[in-house]
Amino acid sequence: MGICGGQGNKKINKPTLEQTKDQTGTTSNNENPGSSKQSRFVKQLTDFKVDPSIFVTLKKGDLLNSYKIDQVLGEGTYGKVSLVTQKGTGLQRAMKQIRKDKIVIEQKDNMIQEVSILKELDHPNIVNIYELYEDESFFYIITEYLSGGELFEKINEIDHFNETIAAGYMRKILEAVNYCHTRNIVHRDLKPENILFESKKAHSSLKIIDFGTAKQIDDSNKLSQRIGTPYYIAPEVINKRYDQKCDVWSCGVILFIMLCGYPPFNGQNQQELYQRIQSGIFSFEEPEWEDISADAKNLIKKMLVIDPEKRISASEALKHDWMIINQKDKKINSKSLEKLAKFHSQSKLKAAIMQLITTQIMSNQEKKKIQTQFKKIDVNKDGTLSREELLKCYREIYDDEMKCQEIVENLFQQADVNGSNQIDYTEFIVAFAKKEQLMAQNKLEKAFRLFDKDGNGQISKQELQEIMGGAQLSEVEWNNVFNELDLNGDGIVNFQEFTEMLIKNANEQE
């Protein structure tokens, strides 16, 4: 019987062929606080884009001033990954440490590309990046710490793994992949080791990691570098001419292994494996497939089509019958939608701080219910909310079409703080979350400490600029941003001023 069969589980074993990545292819105006200051601030910061990426800039100096290394999680040729604790907040992070003397220019470019891509991605099933450091010997990439283990480790811990669970996992993977593909980003190394769970809890969500080989492409160009992990590599990657569809093939291989416990293509060596992948011949004839549904097999067949032009897309895979049948119906909370309709925008600085709390301080568990609502509204599964998707929800609550239009238009004006003409995941959380979720005393303290880099109990303009460096503001604009925090105009911001500014705005929203 297969892993999904009714007579017990078959443990998933990792393929034994060497799985090292194949990369053989070609290839100062201080203002006194006053009643008119906020209007001047808003007017001067019209183009201030607010999203999580503004907090991810290259910082120089001793990382150990900010982080304590707890333990080494893994080591490789180019460096190691460690569990670290942010000293000011006590928050745990993962730190990838890369030796400068061990990497060539191309590898450095890949690292910079990974950070550049990852910091722009805002999806519940993609790992969050927080900081990038550099000193004389190393680069350091700080990301969220995912403690739940790899995909297949999680599956092997489940007593009665079935198709419904498998579909739930694959849905989250494909949603993240589809989000990337709508942005013309190809991951290129999707495999179980790069799919981690947030925690060991039973209903912990999964996230895709390791965008070190990811690439942004345009519709007219094909990629030519052979890269990836042999068992999961698509035939067109072996042939060195491919695009986003290679990720769908990798997902098909992952789904195949999830359901039966072994890969669809095997070989005594890499050459033989590649020949079998290029043949595209696999079988459902083994006993492990007896209890697997026809719908599951049909989806795998469509994901493992040799010709990428005929292969199903990530978006199409999410609409497949197997995905629909195994989806639990989640109703949208109408009361929460009514609250969302009353959301008022904040100044750009306040919006940025709320996003910092959302992405770096709120736990994934706290965001879980909000994430569920977001995904329910996101009908086309592109990882963002359009006007039409929100209108559809409000039409189920109100009969008045004009009222629905006004609510959605106002929501976009208030919540779309990066001007993308969509409501992104983090923007939705900030607008949807309860005040006590975002504004709890302990969260405000941690947010303050993230800004207070030297730990002296005060925030300087320089510290504000350092943590929000991605905002790329002029000196005059930085002065205006800082002055909104510096309520008494003394050139420094203490915790009382910090909280007063945030709580005042939150109270005005109620």
TrEMBL record:
Which residues make up the binding site for ATP? K96
Q: Which InterPro entries match?
A: CDPK_Ser/Thr_kinases, EF_Hand_1_Ca_BS, EF_hand_dom, Prot_kinase_dom, Protein_kinase_ATP_BS, S100/CaBP7/8-like_CS, Ser/Thr_kinase_AS
Q: Which GO molecular function annotations are given, in alphabetical order? A: ATP binding; calcium ion binding; protein serine/threonine kinase activity
Q: Which residue ranges does the record assign to the EF-hand domain?
A: 365-400, 403-438, 439-474, 477-508
**Main localization of the protein described in the UniProt heading:** membrane
Per its UniProt record, the required cofactor names are:
Mg(2+)
Instruction: Give the region (Disordered) as residue ranges.
Output: 1-39
* Membrane topology of the entry: Lipid-anchor
Entry GO CC: host cell plasma membrane; motile cilium; plasma membrane; symbiont-containing vacuole membrane
* Location relative to the cell: Cell membrane; Cell projection, Cilium, Flagellum; Host cell membrane; Parasitophorous vacuole membrane
Please note every region of biased composition (Polar residues): 16-39
Q: Which reaction does it catalyse?
A: L-threonyl-[protein] + ATP = O-phospho-L-threonyl-[protein] + ADP + H(+); L-seryl-[protein] + ATP = O-phospho-L-seryl-[protein] + ADP + H(+)
Protein kinase domain: from which residue to which, for each copy? 67-323
Question: What keywords appear on the UniProt entry?
Answer: ATP-binding, Cell membrane, Cell projection, Cilium, Flagellum, Host cell membrane, Host membrane, Kinase, Lipoprotein, Membrane, Myristate, Nucleotide-binding, Palmitate, Repeat, Serine/threonine-protein kinase, Transferase
Q: Which residues form a coiled coil?
A: none
Q: Name one Pfam family in it.
A: Pkinase
Enzyme Commission number(s) of this protein: 2.7.11.1
Q: Which family does it belong to?
A: Belongs to the protein kinase superfamily. Ser/Thr protein kinase family. CDPK subfamily.
- This chain's protein is named Calcium-dependent protein kinase 1
Q: Which organism is it from?
A: Paramecium pentaurelia
